[in-house]
Amino acid sequence: MKAMTLVKNFMTGMDSVGDIVGRIEAERAKLAASMQEVERLEAVRVGADSYEDAQAAESRLGRVRWEISRIDALLPQLEARLARPIHDAGGGGGPISL
């Protein structure tokens, strides 16, 4: 079902406000969790008993930092989609804000 929605949105160029807001909320939740994970992994890295353990934590930190960067770049794009006129079944259209 989600695949069909993605295809429809791609073909029509329209997303529902609820879908966009839901995606923004999900990405913000991922961002918060990732930031907490960075703090935890920093503590693990600093307190590691071996170089290998510290390197494993550093490797995971790199992945989490990448995820944070990805979300930081994506959120403004999603928020901009809310500012564009969105045409719904009611014939509306116009800027939408959170």
Task: Describe this structure in a few short sentences.
The protein has about 100 residues and is an all-alpha fold. It is built from three helices and no strands.
Report on the structure:
The protein is an all-alpha fold. The chain has a domain of 58 residues. It is 76% helix and 0% strand. It has 3 helices and no strands. Helix 2 runs antiparallel to helix 3. The chain is rod-shaped and about 50 Å long. The two termini are 27 Å apart. About 5% of the residues have low confidence.
Keywords:
about 100 residues; mainly alpha; about 0% strand; rod-shaped
Order of helices and strands: HHH
Unreliable spans? 88-92
- Radius of gyration, in angstroms, nearest whole number: 19 Å
Mean pLDDT: 83
| Helical run tally | 3
Number of strands: 0
Gross geometry? rod-shaped
Distance between the termini: 27 Å
Largest sheet: none
Kindly state the percentage of residues in helix. Answer: over 70%
Structural class: mainly alpha
Strand proportion: under 5%
Task: Explain the layout of strands and helices.
Elements: H1 2-12, H2 17-46, H3 51-83
